[in-house]
Amino acid sequence: MDRFYRGFIAGFIAGVFLNVYNLIFYYLRITEIRFIDWTSILMFGHRPENMNAIILNIIFQLLWDGFLGVIFAYLIPKISSRGYLIKGPLCAAFLFFVFNLIVVLYRIPFLTDKFPLMTFQVNLGGVILWGLILTFILKKLDRYRLENG
To answer: Is the pLDDT of residue 74 over 80?
Structure first.
């Protein structure tokens, strides 16, 4: 399995954990927006309206997470693999800030609504968790590749 697939698998699996984390906080009414809402708003201009739309947006969101995992997998050799478990969450947090900045600069409807600070904090925590899981899985897949050729 090459670097592309290892990165995609790690990002995709980390995305599953991110969505579970995010949905738990959303349905406990601690946060007001789900990551699948972000996907739906960016792709369709509104939040998902039914189960088919939710499933479609989860798939797109997981594919996006996989793609970000690929980017990280190719980036990590350029910045060295030391401190993997610190660099992943830091890169993820950086992306979170960049994506939020883009949303604000382009005034994307629904995503620029004023959300409570708790929503921002919970979503940032989810992104950091995603980065941690991404790097953990990527490191395991890299070790497996080295050990098994």
So the answer is: yes
**Mean pLDDT of the region 120-124:** 94
Residue 39 exposed, middle or buried by CB count within 10 Å (0-12, 13-18, 19+): buried
Tokens of 131: 């980065």
Whether 149 shows a pLDDT value over 90: the answer reads no
Q: Please answer whether residues 36 and 54 qualify as being in contact, where contact means their C-beta atoms are separated by less than 8 angstroms.
A: yes
pLDDT of residue 129 exceeding 70, the answer is yes
Q: Which residue from 1, 2, 7 is spatially nearest to 134, judged by alpha carbons?
A: 7
Chain centroid offset of residue 12 CA: 9
pTM summary value: 0.91
Nearest residue to 124 via CA among 59, 50, 35:
35
**Tokens describing residue 72:** 């990280």
Per-residue DSSP letters for 51-117?
A: HHHHHHHHHHHHHHHHHHHHHHHHHHHHH-STTHHHHHHHHHHHHHHHHHHHHHHTT-TTTTS---H
The count of other CB atoms within 10 Å of the CB of residue 47 is 17
Q: How many residues does the chain have?
A: 149
Q: How confident is the model at residue 57 (pLDDT cuts 50, 70, 90)?
A: very high
